[in-house]
Amino acid sequence: MKDQEQGGRHRGLDCVLPSARTAAARRGAAAIAGAILAVTFVAPGRAEIVKLDADTAMVRIVQVSHAAAAASERESATRETVSAADAATLPSLSAGASLARLSSVPEFRLPFAVPGQQPLVLVPDITTAYATNMRLQQTLYSGGAISGLRQATRDDTEASARLREQTVADLRVTARLAYWEAVRAAASVDAAHAQERRAARLLDDTQSLFAVGMAVNADVLAAKERVASARVGVIAAETAAANALAQLHSLLQIDPSDTVELADSLTGPLPNLPGTAEELQHEALATRSELAVSSAQLAALHAREELAKAPSRPAVGAVAEYDVSRPNQRYFPETDRWQDSWSVGVAASWTLYDGGKSRADTAASRFAQRAAVQDREELTRRIQLEVENDRRNLESALATVASADAAHDAATEREVAARERHAAGLAAMAEILDAEAQLAAADQQQIDARSASWMAAATLARAIGR
Questions:
Q1: Fewer CB within 10 Å, N side or C side of the chain?
Q2: pLDDT of 20
Q3: Backbone dihedral angles phi then psi of residue 94, each to the nearest 5 degrees
């Protein structure tokens, strides 16, 4: 009757104001056309549809993530330290030049001279000195410093590579969890709309029964409350879905104007339960990048122990020099002209006492290695526990899905039966309201259980190292 009254009012308006309605329609059409032209000629680009599934999301996040790019840059940086350490095994060649203005000094001449010649000047007054030098140096033995540094940098590079793999694995599971959260939120929106439609249908039926005297005003008010509550649920579900999609847009660097289409739904098959906990733990200990990082860091500490011992050992190097200077101090007496000279030799040094620094550095390195070993054992324990718990969580999630599906089927049948009993005059309105509330809860419980199974599978895959 309410719809009939509204329809009558609408028809009355159509009859009274036909010209106004036509003019409004024309203005609306013009506005739409203007908006289309504005989007066509002003907008910098057209929105696109991005189709996603869990695997696509995992690939994309690695491609666009700043964290993955930073990890790659750090790995490249550590690779350069290997080249720098290797350079210490090669000879080094340096060149230098200098120019100096000197104060004037009295010349010193021999008091006698060969007949017919000037006295020999032993100390000439030279006020400008020039020098050029080339030096070739090769380390022959460094006490283990060079070999220790080379090995340490290689272990650091291995650790950096495994850290990058760890970052990628974390990003992949983050993308999968965000994707399934978006799927769950979208399913919750559908369930909320379904509940709203059921509530609206119940309100229509109740108002019809009230009109013929088969329902009381309290029943109508209860049905209206159910409609309002369903609308609240729709608003909350749509907000959660929008937030989940915003999270997905941000993680995957998708333009906010682009539309994301989720390829999966929660009505499809469920994830499989992998092998036993012992099998999965064995796989995790063989594949987890965190353990590889720990092993590489432990190896680097061992290499740096040799680096700490090096100062207490002798060092030997070869040196070759070629000088062209004016004056050249190796010539006697000095003369104000260019002269060259060269030298080749071997130099050795040995620090006999450094106050105990080398011994303390070596001891510190050994303590750091022992701490790293303990850290690795603790990491192993945590990984084994993580795999065990995550597998149990997946097993529990799959069992929960079976129960949630059964509860949903029962709630659906109860809601239908309650409507039939009410239509036959055998049940009060409160029974229908209670049945619809339980059906709404069963809908959401089924959605949560199915999405939780996929999230548990993603978390377990990360724990195993897949």
A1: N
A2: 35
A3: -130, 150
Residue 206, Cβ density class (10 Å: 0-12 exposed, 13-18 middle, ≥19 buried): buried
Whose CA is closest to 390, among 451, 453, 463? 463
Contact (Cβ atoms closer than 8 angstroms) between residue 195 and residue 230: yes
CATH number of 158's domain: 1.20.1600.10
pLDDT digit string, tens, across residues 167-222: 999 999 999 999 999 999 999 999 999 999 989 988 898 888 888 887 788 888 98
Number of neighbours of residue 120 by Cβ within 10 angstroms: 12
Distance CA 108, CA 86 (A): 53
pTM over 0.90: no
Q: Is residue 383 part of a domain?
A: yes
Alpha carbons 250 and 262: distance in angstroms, whole number: 16
Cα–Cα distance, 114 to 120 (Å, whole number)? 9
Rounded Cα gap, residues 33 and 24, in angstroms: 14
DSSP codes of every residue in 19-37? HHHHHHHHHHHHHHHHHHH
Residue 33 lies in a domain: no
- Rounded Cα distance, 149 and 186, in Å: 55
Provide the β-strand partners of residue 109.
121
Residue at 460 is within a domain: yes
For residues 106 and 126, what is the distance between their CA atoms, to the nearest angstrom?
Answer: 10
Q: Does residue 349 form part of some domain?
A: no
The number of folded domains in the chain is: 1
Strand partners, 35: none
Question: Residue 341 phi/psi, 5° resolution?
Answer: -160, 160
